[in-house]
Amino acid sequence: MALRMLLLGSARAAKLAANHQSARQFASATAKSGAGAGGFIGGLAALGGGLWAANEYGYINLSQAIQGLQASIPQLGQAKKDYGAVRKAIEELLDADDYDDGSYGPVLVRLAWHASGTYCAASNTGGSNGATMRFAPESDNGANQGLHVARQLLDPVKAAFPWISYSDLWTLAGAVAIEAMGGPVIAWRPGRADKTGTADCPPDGRLPDASQGAGHVRDVFGRMGFDDREMVALIGAHSIGRCHTDRSGYEGPWTNAPTTFSNLYFQELLNNKW
User: Fold this and answer.
1) Would you please indicate which residues are annotated as catalytic (active-site) residues?
2) pTM attached to this predicted model
3) Sign of the torsion formed by the C-alpha atoms of 53, 56, 57 and 63
4) What is the spatial distance between Cα 274 and Cα 263, in angstroms, rounded to a whole number?
């Protein structure tokens, strides 16, 4: 009856409960009096009144209602999906005096971007949904060199919160890193699912190559559906982080504040002679 009261609302459920209690009392009384078949039929009639009340108040399909309720309530033993706790765990990993410029923030942004930047709007393949960079050959692609640092950094977080997908974890880490470095709050949402093997890895060549020019940038970003204005905004992420000779072939920070989200990258482009 508690379940029925929850589903029907207190007023309706109270009436249904009263009918049900009457039926139970009637059936109990007839059983004690040894009424036999007649008492059994009378008990069914009283119970039928309770079921009729349920139908009258809209409670028609009990099994479907129960299934819907069960789907909305976490099962016993199932971990609560506390994304705030995941955020906190990521934040605690960011500062590192012995890595680059003292923060893992830029490499986490790069991981989120390279996981997402393989998306193709025309074929609806690639992108962050799947976390296929866990598998070779994508993990070994030249554009992804050095990102094992970011993936391994997040492995303990994944172990602590096994219910979160790698796809969600990597993108959330990028959002947290941007916010921690002074950038805007990212409207991040969960729901990405991980792929299970190499068959879903996108082809190599979908990520930007620093040795190529503007036409290449338009090809790469245009494949994802961005226009020139959006491309410029996204390229501004180079305000954070640095180059490494063992990854891109270049060396040094993009700006003089590589762990601060800013527009310094654009200032460098516009205010210096190249």
Assistant:
1) 114, 254
2) 0.71
3) positive
4) 18
Confidence of residue 1 (pLDDT cuts 50, 70, 90): very low
Q: For residue 110, what are the contacts with CB-CB under 8 A and spacing of at least 6?
A: 147, 150, 241
Q: Which tokens belong to 72?
A: 């909305």
Residue whose C-alpha is closest to residue 153's, from 138, 132, 174? 174
User: CA 221 to CA 188: how far, in whole Å?
Assistant: 21
Q: What are 142-187's pLDDT values in tens digits?
A: 999 999 999 999 999 999 999 999 999 999 999 999 999 999 999 9
SS3 readout for 167-178: HHHHHHHHHHHH
Q: What is the pLDDT of residue 34?
A: 45
**b/e burial code for range 234-244 (CB count within 10 A of at least 16 → b):** bebbbbbbbee
